[in-house]
C-alpha cells in the first residue's frame, strides 16, 4: 500500500523493478487505464492515462479522459492490444473501493485487476500487474452511490501520485537500458 501522504518512492521503485526485470525484458509495456470520465469515482484510470500521455512516457497508454476504456469497449481494446502486441506486459490501473482508512492509497499487485467488481459487473480480468487507487470506502449504501459521492480531490491526488510514480519509473528504466 502506498498512501497519498507517503512519498511515491516505493511505488516508483517497485514499478522500475518490474520494468527492468529480465523476465519482462522483451515485452512491450502497456498501461491500461480503466474507468469512465462520467463518474468522479471511476475517473482515476482515465485521469492517470491523460497525465501519462501529457508526460510523454515511452510506453503505450490506453484509456484517457478523451478516449476512456470502460465496460463497453474493454473487450475490444484487449483484442486490439493482443493483435498489435505479440508479447506485452500490461499494467492495468483502476479505481477501487476499500476500507475507510485506505482511502487515498494505491496498491500495486501482481496479477489481473477485476474491473467493475464494486458494481458487480462481469468484465474480463486484465493485466499482468495492476495498480488500484482507493477512491472511497465501502458502506451499506449501493456502490454506485459511493462512486458518485467520491471527492475529486482524492481522485486527482491519487492520479498525480500514480502518474508521477510511473513517469519516474520510466525515466529509471530508460537510464537502465
Automatic annotation (TrEMBL):
Pfam families: DUF1256 (PF06866)
GO BP terms: proteolysis
UniProt keyword terms in alphabetical order: Hydrolase, Protease
Keyword Lipid biosynthesis annotated: no
Domain of life according to the entry: Bacteria
SUPFAM superfamilies xref list: HybD-like
InterPro entries: Pept_HybD-like_dom_sf, YyaC
Listed GO MF terms: peptidase activity
Name recorded for this polypeptide: Spore protease YyaC
Lineage of the species this protein comes from: Bacteria, Bacillati, Bacillota, Bacilli, Bacillales
